[in-house]
């Protein structure tokens, strides 16, 4: 697996507390020295410029974090598969069959993933 230097974020823009959760996860990665790239809707939510078109994001990162439900995850899955980029799908409250990481376990799951990536 490639060393993770850049993390991309894709969101479901109307998910509850999305701005707060997105900002917390960005801080998490930045504390680890990683650059965070936002797709257009995520950048708009945080008022951080225009963002990167969703179709281009997987070619610029080594990990994708999807905050939303199964539909949000599926909208990015085929793009990441073409680039061999791992995806962490964080369930934002609705029933999720594919976004299996509950919000309250996101940082623990990321710690375990990143620890394994470093070995």
UniProtKB/TrEMBL annotation:
MF (Gene Ontology): NAD+ kinase activity
| Pfam families given in the database record | NAD_kinase
Q: Which residues cross the membrane?
A: none
The GO biological-process annotations, alphabetized, read as: NADP+ biosynthetic process
Originating organism: marine sediment metagenome
Name of the protein this chain belongs to:
NAD(+) kinase
């Amino acid at each position: 697996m490639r060393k993770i230097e850049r993390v991309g974020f894709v969101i479901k823009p109307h998910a509850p507390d999305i701005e707060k959760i997105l900002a917390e996860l960005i801080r998490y990665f930045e504390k680890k020295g990683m650059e965070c790239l936002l797709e257009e809707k995520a950048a708009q939510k945080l008022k951080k410029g225009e963002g990167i078109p969703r179709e281009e994001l997987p070619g610029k990162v080594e990990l994708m974090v999807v905050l939303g439900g199964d539909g949000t995850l599926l909208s990015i899955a085929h793009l990441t598969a073409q680039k061999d980029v791992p995806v962490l799908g964080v369930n934002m409250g609705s029933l999720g069959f594919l976004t299996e990481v509950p919000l309250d376990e996101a940082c623990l799951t990321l710690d375990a993933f990143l620890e394994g990536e470093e070995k």
